[in-house]
Amino acid sequence: MTDESSAAPRPTLEAVAARAGVSRATVSRVVNGDAGVRETLAAKVRHAVDELGYVPNRAARSLVTRRHDAVAVVIAEPETRVFADPFFALQLRGISKELTAHDVQLVLLLTEGRDDHERVGRYLAGGHVDGALVFSLHLDDPLPGIIRRAGVPTVFGGRPGWSDPVSGGPGAPYVDCDNRGGAREAVRHLVGLGCGRVAHITGPLDQTSAVDRLDGFRDVLADADPRLIVEGDFTPAGGERAMRQLLDACPDVDAVFAANDLSASGALRVLRERGRRVPDDVAVIGFDDMLPVAEQVDPPLTTVRQDIEEMGRLMARILLQGRGESPAATPAGVVLPTSLVRRASA
């Protein structure tokens, strides 16, 4: 037996127009969110839509508007890293909030190898999304070139580290924080505490955020012992390895600026294992102010705060603005301020 309700035809624009007593064109403008319709008429259309249970045909609408109401978020990291690092969760939360407010779907794409790059390129070139938000790029990453060839509008998270126009070119829109200035403030704070052997655990130096934070460290301590600078990888395990190397090479280290909170958490574990009191023997500062990390380590972490969620929202906002009538107004780069949050570790 056939379910008559499921077989009933879907309400059309014409039906909504007849119910509201307006033209089909007026209904189309209201449904597609266009400006220029008097509020009294728009209210009639919305009431008719609710009464009839009209659902827009997104496929048909995309043919007219050339929009898909979907945005790809491309993270150039393996899923094991993405789902273990609170940074990505915070940035995705900001992106999702902004896209949801504009009724736009988020499509998450992760890359772990060359095959994934090709897959992402094919998907973006296939006309499924209105644009891409891309972050956690590494300097040798082919993604910028692949995305450019796909021809989709793109906003990058983090300052791009390339100058080749084929890979995105100068002026590619991006959102970042003041990595260098935040690092300077952290190191100056340690020096102001009277620390004389300040070490730095960097992030991976094929990422511009890590390079900028290292440059900020060197702005304050240009003559630092090279042994006091050890490369990490933005993970707790990387922070542990780097801290052990620092203590073995420079037992008199009395302060550590770690390039992110996860690295700092690893450093704190090693200092505790080695019997070093924080901050009495060694002061520690991180970067990010990710509360699930900074407030739960022992002792609570002094760190440089960047508004990670707001960075995600701003990336999405810039991309959505670029879909409008004046994409030339899209800013080339936005750098958000940082601030030092003082807790018990320094």
Structure description:
This protein is an alpha/beta fold. The chain contains 15 helices and twelve strands. Strands 2-1-3-4-5-11 form a six-stranded parallel β-sheet, sandwiched between helices. It has a six-stranded mixed β-sheet with strand order 7-6-8-9-10-12, with helices on both faces. Strand 9 (283-288), helix 14 (291-294) and strand 10 form a beta-alpha-beta unit. Helix 2 crosses helix 3, helix 2 (13-20) crosses helix 4 and helix 10 (179-192) packs parallel to helix 11 (208-220). The longest helix has 16 residues, at 86-101. It starts with a helix and ends in a 5-residue tail after the last strand. The relative contact order is 0.12.
Question: What's a concise summary of this model?
Answer:
This protein has 346 residues and is an alpha/beta fold. It has helices at residues 4-7, 13-20, 24-31, 39-52, 58-65, 79-82, 86-101, 114-125, 143-150, 179-192, 208-220, 236-249, 261-273, 291-294, 308-321; strands spanning 70-75, 105-110, 131-135, 154-157, 174-177, 198-202, 229-231, 255-258, 283-288, 302-305, 333-336, 339-341. Helix 2 crosses helix 3, helix 2 crosses helix 4 and helix 10 packs parallel to helix 11 (208-220).
